[in-house]
Amino acid sequence: IERLVSELASSPAVGAAGPIVVNDNPSRTVQAAGVALRPFFPVARGIGKGIPYAVAISRTFRFDFLQGSCLLVRGDAFAKLNGLDPDFFFFAEDADLMIRLKAAGYRGSLVSDTYVVHRRSSTIGAGSERFIYVSLRSMLIFIKKHARRHELPSAALTMVAQSAALFALSRASRPGARIASIVRAWR
User: Fold this and answer.
1) Quick one: pLDDT band at residue 3, thresholds 50, 70, 90?
2) How much is the mean pLDDT over the chain?
């Protein structure tokens, strides 16, 4: 946390600082050294995914946003933006915040000489009915809020594919529950 605070203090233009996010495995492979949204909007892709942290520490990464699992945001910037958008829950709120920070003239800074261990989706339960609903709903809200007109066809196709993938990979106990979660999210 001290490194993130120091990074925020380094320049008033730094609106958010975050570490490299690593998996909970012995080699500490990278989950995300920042996240990219394009070219397959709205699918987020962890940058540096799978490489050992020991390798990532010496690289420079370009990113669209920093992962919200560990993100320190400048207080005055956060207040200026009225905080996180309450329409989001669990997913995409970090991307939305970073887009709004950039629009307000701030930038995000990846502090690559530090990392945080993230147990992906352990709180919400990857593949659960709630996971399906919340992740799809958040992505759809994000598209509605941020997609440019020319991105809408590819975003819609991506979301249909994402819905099918979540249905197939879901750990929901009943197939009907999976479908209901998907329909609720789209509604």
Assistant:
1) very high
2) 84
Element (DSSP H or E) covering residue 99: helix 93-103
Say yes or no to pLDDT of 139 above 70.
Answer: yes
- The Cα–Cα gap between 187 and 169 comes to 21
**pLDDT tens profile 31-54:** 888 888 764 555 667 788 888 888
Amino acid making up residue 75: G
Structure tokens at 185: 């999210």
Tokens of 125: 């339960």
State yes or no: pLDDT of 101 exceeds 90.
yes
61 within 8 A of 47, measured Cβ to Cβ:
yes
- Is 34 in contact with 67 (CB distance < 8 Å)? yes
Q: 95-125 burial by CB neighbour count: b if 16+ within 10 A, else e? A: bbbbbbbeeeebebbbbbebbbebeeeeebe
pTM of the entire predicted model: 0.81
Using CA atoms of 71, 82, 98, 89 in order, give the dihedral in degrees to the nearest 10: 70
Number of H helices, E strands in the chain: 7, 6
DSSP SS3 for 52: strand
* Closest to 135 in 3D by CA, of 84, 170, 176: 170
